[in-house]
UniProtKB/TrEMBL annotation:
Pfam families: Cupin_2, HTH_3. PANTHER family: HTH-TYPE TRANSCRIPTIONAL REGULATOR, HTH-TYPE TRANSCRIPTIONAL REGULATOR PUUR. The keyword DNA-binding applies. InterPro entries: Cro/C1-type_HTH, Cupin_2, Lambda_DNA-bd_dom_sf, RmlC-like_jellyroll, RmlC_Cupin_sf, TransReg_Diox_bact_type. Coiled coil: none annotated. Keywords: DNA-binding. It comes from the Bacteria. Residues 11-65 form the HTH cro/C1-type domain. This is Cupin domain-containing protein. It comes from Rhizobium puerariae.
Length: 195
């Protein structure tokens, strides 16, 4: 990370632009009110997990937070090479270790501009979002195009095959795994955007 990047000022600007008070953002993100204030005034340097949680309350991903000048293609149509590769944000996230298999996540267009994140996801055999369940302030759904995907949502577990789909509240802890010996391809959507 750039030494001159001001995390506090950036968070403050994004919160104000979203029309939220510190207390409102804290409630949306599920963090103590004082934590927002301490980060914005640079009294504390948040961990990656804490910052991700705070940003989920704004519907902003880590990439957009640290790379505000990045501008995805405008659309309305996108070729394969114009999809935005978010894989590094997934694999380096806490709890998202990818298991023994590779994960590839590519986004269609500008998710923030449309308040909708559409992803082309590829899970190679043994790919796993990790032992720590994902949880963020969104709703998400997806369609399995190829292969099989084990999805855990709360206490429910199901292996979805090609042609099957899912839709749930992302605040419920969840996990994705490919336990098969073939790759799995999923088209998913999340609103507001998570990554």
């Amino acid at each position: 990370m750039d030494q001159i990047f001001d995390i506090g000022a950036r968070l403050n600007a994004m919160r104000v632009a979203a029309g939220l008070s510190q207390r409102q953002l804290a409630e949306r993100a599920g963090v103590p009110h004082a934590q927002i204030s301490n980060v914005e005034t640079n009294k504390v340097s948040p961990s990656v997990a804490t910052l991700r949680k705070i940003l989920s309350g704004l519907g902003v991903g880590m990439g957009d937070f640290f790379e505000p000048e990045r501008s995805p293609p405008k659309g309305p149509f996108f070729s394969a090479h114009e999809l935005v590769d978010l894989t590094s944000q997934i694999v380096t996230s806490p709890g998202l270790d990818g298991g023994d298999g590779k994960l590839v996540f590519r986004q269609i267009g500008d998710a923030r501009a449309h308040n909708l994140q559409i992803l082309h996801e590829v899970y190679e055999p043994n790919a796993d979002t990790g032992d720590t369940p994902l949880q963020h302030a969104s709703s998400e759904g997806g369609y399995v195009v190829e292969g099989e995907l084990e999805l855990t949502v709360g206490d429910e577990v199901r292996v979805l095959k090609a042609g099957e789909a899912y839709l749930f509240d992302s605040r419920v802890p969840h996990r994705f795994r490919n336990l098969s010996d073939r790759r799995t391809v999923v088209i998913s959507a999340c609103s507001p955007p998570y990554l």
